[in-house]
Amino acid sequence: MRALLVLPTLNEEAGVQGVLEDALRHDDRFDVVVVDGRSEDATVELAHAAGVHVVQQRGRGKGAAIRTAIDVFLAGPWDALAMIDADGTYAVEALVDVLPMLDHHPVLVGDRLRGPLEPSSMGRLNFLGNRFLSAVASAVHRTDAADVCSGCWVMRRSIVEGLRLNSLGFELEAELFASLAAMGHAPTWVRIPYRAREGDAKLTSILDGVRILRKLVVRRVMQARKTHL
Ligand SMILES: Nc1nc2c(ncn2[C@@H]2O[C@H](COP(=O)(O)OP(=O)(O)OP(=O)(O)O)[C@@H](O)[C@H]2O)c(=O)[nH]1
Ligand SMILES: [Mg+2]
């Protein structure tokens, strides 16, 4: 099974190099693509220097970036899609451990909230917000959501083909979860470590939290029509 590892980037010059070095140690398992949101720092140069494929996303926001990546994935030969942040918070090694589980589980998601959380990796407000949003996701979609805002997802190709997404920003993961629940798929949650990020966060806790909440509710009522932008 060969996977495509997607790394969304927006001004991640502090973290992207380390993540790429870790990822390229496993180039027997996956190809790597950086989907960039018009970074103004050295992110794209660092990715090119590492020799990985860089795609400029369509539109703006992490959601639009992942939907661009899904188009790239579906146009290619890969059996599975994996994604993590490019800020050093997720350990590539943990993702590599998760990949073989795809043989028995079509969707795997890293659970940061029950895994070892490095001190200062997630502030108290974000931790409580993540717990709250996951509880809402579980109740509204009647599907277990341990950590609905996790950025670590691994899915078989057949699952990706059925996704219906129209998120532009950080509500993308909530919509992924909702789209899967509508397809009758419950993710398998795998405890993973979560580390302090390199560089500045792009997410704003309250505003993005409200958008995520809204997306969870709206997607219970109606599905998005398509995924491509
Ligand atoms: N291509 C692209 N990537 C983005 C955009 N916004 C954020 N990202 C990337 O998406 C990933 C998640 O963004 P973060 O700022 O780390 O958000 P977060 O993980 O919820 O917050 P932290 O816990 O502080 O890391 C990172 O790799 C970002 O560089 C965007 O508009 N376009
Ligand atoms: Mg992050």
Task: Give an overview of the whole structure.
This protein is α/β, with parallel strands linked by helices and about 230 residues long. The chain has one domain (about 5-220): Spore Coat Polysaccharide Biosynthesis Protein SpsA, Chain A, CATH 3.90.550. It has helices spanning about 15-25, 45-50, 60-75, 90-100, 125-140, 155-160, 170-180, 205-220; strands at about 5-10, 30-35, 55, 80-85, 105-110, 155, 190. It has a seven-stranded mixed sheet, with helices on both faces. Helix 1 links the parallel strand 1 and strand 2. It starts with a strand and ends in an 8-residue tail after the last helix. About 45% of the residues are buried. The mean pLDDT is about 95. Magnesium ion binds near residues 85, 87, 89, 151 and 197.
